[in-house]
Amino acid sequence: MNQVDTGTQEGAANNPATSNSAIEKPSVGELVDGKGHTTGADWLARYSSSLMGVFGTPQRVLVRGAGCLVWDADGKEYLDLLGGIAVNALGHAHPFVTSVISSQLATLGHVSNFFTSPTQIALAEKLLTLAGAPAASKVFFTNSGTEANEAAFKLARRNSSGARTKIIALEGAFHGRTMGALALTAKEAYRAPFEPLPGGVVHIPFGDVEALEAAIDETVAAVFLEPIQGEAGVRPLPPGYLRAAREATIRAGALLILDEVQTGIGRTGKWLASEDSGIVPDAVTLAKGLGGGFPIGALITFGAQTSSLLSAGQHGTTFGGNPVATAAALATLHAIETQRVLENVAVVGEHLRAGLAAIEGVTEVRGEGLLIGFDLDADVAPAVVTAGLDAGFIVNSPGPRTIRLAPPLVLTTSQADTFLAAFPAILTTAKDAQ
To answer: Which alpha helices (DSSP H) does 293-403 contain, by range?
Structure first.
């Protein structure tokens, strides 16, 4: 009989697959650069011949980052004001998060959903505390925001006994691109190529309390809301809307599910954008900033009744909540708490919004904390993105005259000022290019 590796350190050291001394150790650069290409143009040529074109042509090939700065393959430096679309909460290559991820991966990387790990349990407990969830609340981990919303969609279906056939979402909503989340998403261009989508979803006018109250009755299983619609140009719900939704859903026996994938984990200067609304939802979805750049999402269900809607075997994931992802999230939350990041978000966010509002050609500034949308006086937003890149700034255009900023939460006032100083010239360049 062959001797079985017991998993001890001695066993690992004697295993050719795990022994450091027995294997060749090329650098990451050597692993990816086997053909000798080094320029951005060369990388993009390889990209176009090897990757599916669902994202169009990448704007740049980024090779490294530090804090709020990134560098491309040609050595050009950029101030990252998009943060991987609100993902890089602590910027790039945060030393503490990096060390925790490395340490966890070197200890235990993946266990499947037949087992659990201390980091998974600790993160669930931490999120329940941060969300102010009552007793018997629960967490389900995913790999992304769309998967968290997919789980929430199934949660809503489990509240669909009897005549509850409808799910309410808002015009302008973006909840993801998997089939259930896509059914909740409003944009026709995203939906049409994949119809028929899961049925029963009704989109009602954004921010209209009368339309909301008229739509919610005993045929509704759930209402999905984003406190701020990021993909629609950073549109906050009007004051009182969440409370009206909560009261109407309670009356009708429907679930209120908040999509805080983009707005959660400190993006607005609070752990949740909805935490000042005075309501307790039935569920919240999280992702983007949770892992500090490592893929992880979560569905939090509030209270015993909602938390029991999904039972064993009714939903699952292979990678969701694995030890490395949950360790990354624990490290990110710890850094946000101990480094006073939420205070920084409030201060720098207010500074940025005030500075933008004073620039000629900016007609409206919206958002909270470091989730900012601002409109221009001409349909030049895509050209602004291009001119911004040429000037060393990464921004995003969710609409023809709207710019979105979602930088790392550690952006400094000084860094914000460099963008404010450069933006008038960027806007002029964009208009001249039209």
So the answer is: 303-307, 323-338, 341-357, 381-391
| Catalytic residue IDs | 174, 259, 288
How far is it, in rounded angstroms, from Cα 295 to Cα 324?
10
Q: Rounded to an integer, what is the distance from CA 198 to the centroid of its chain?
A: 23
In this predicted structure, the answer to whether residue 24 has a pLDDT above a threshold of 70 is yes
**DSSP labels for 150-183?**
HHHHHHHHTT--TT--EEEEETT----SSHHHHH
Q: What is the DSSP letter of 51?
A: S
Q: Which residues contact 175 (CB under 8 A, 6 or more apart)?
A: 146, 149, 169, 181, 182, 184, 185, 224, 226, 259, 261
User: By the 8 A CB rule, do 293 and 93 touch?
Assistant: no
- Would you call 273 exposed, middle or buried from its count of C-beta atoms within 10 A (0-12, 13-18, 19+)? buried
pLDDT digit string (tens) for 233-279? 999 999 999 999 999 999 999 999 999 999 999 999 999 999 999 99
Is residue 168 a contact partner of residue 216, using CB atoms and an 8 Å limit?
A: yes
Mean pLDDT score across all residues of the chain: 94
Tell whether omega for the bond before 196 is within 30 degrees of 0, i.e. cis: yes
CA dist 407 and 415 (Å) reads: 11
